[in-house]
Amino acid sequence: MLIALIARDKPDHLDTRMENRAAHLAYIEETGVVAQAGPLLDQDGNMVGSLIILDVEDMAAGEAWAAGDPYAKAGLFEAVELITWKKVIG
Fold it and tell me: What is the pTM of this model?
């Protein structure tokens, strides 16, 4: 099952993102369920959120992955949405 995780950072939390970036990237590597990922950017090119496509067994696994993300544990996100996603192109 593919799940799109769309997370918006809390305002003025770029430092939190940068302080936890290495741990976040290591978590992605260690868990092996991320099909695609990248930061959301504002008009000035600053990172303000994340888009992560998870390839997991079910929504519960996606929710567990999201809860274990070092960014989430650091309190970076203002809002997180997980929604089933269907790949059509690419």
Answer: 0.92
